């Protein structure tokens, strides 16, 4: 009897919990550097129970599961918020961030760093330069400022 109970308990734990919602055929950005993307997400009782491939998510689907075909669209982890600046944040992280730059030397250093990350011909985007007005009112002409930028990306 004891062996039968262990056997039933073991195999019942192998059966996947069924999801209320499955989003599949998606580009899921996981925010996990070791596994940055996935294709599908399974949710039960408002909790994510699986993130992985379209094939593997099938075991979480039954007749009561609401299935959303994302059609390759981006799915992001997060919370409901009616005011986000996702694109701007990405530009700060992946592009040129000059928010903390107030002088010419740090500007040139930051430009050099970002220039080394970008392949030739790719535009450097971002900026968000907090020293814009200070530089604008400086003795360096507009052509001089442009030349400092064009030195890195003509």
TrEMBL record:
One of its GO terms (molecular function) is hydrolase activity, acting on carbon-nitrogen (but not peptide) bonds. InterPro entries: Amidohydro_3, Metal-dep_hydrolase_composite. Residues 67-133 form the Amidohydrolase domain. Pfam families: Amidohydro_3 (PF07969). This is Amidohydrolase 3 domain-containing protein.
């Amino acid at each position: 009897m004891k062996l039968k109970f262990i056997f039933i308990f073991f195999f019942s734990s192998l059966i996947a919990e069924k999801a209320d919602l499955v989003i599949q055929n998606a580009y899921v950005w996981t925010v996990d550097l070791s596994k940055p993307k996935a294709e599908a997400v399974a949710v039960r009782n408002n909790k994510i129970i699986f993130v992985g491939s379209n094939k593997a998510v099938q075991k979480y689907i039954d007749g009561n599961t609401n299935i959303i075909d994302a059609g390759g669209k981006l799915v992001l982890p997060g919370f409901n918020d009616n005011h986000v600046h996702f694109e701007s944040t990405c530009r700060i992280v992946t592009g040129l961030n000059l928010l903390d730059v107030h002088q010419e030397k740090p500007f040139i250093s930051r430009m050099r760093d970002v220039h080394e990350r970008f392949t030739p011909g790719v535009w450097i985007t971002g900026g968000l330069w907090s020293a814009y007005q200070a530089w604008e009112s400086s003795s360096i002409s507009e052509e001089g400022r442009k030349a400092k930028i064009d030195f890195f990306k003509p």
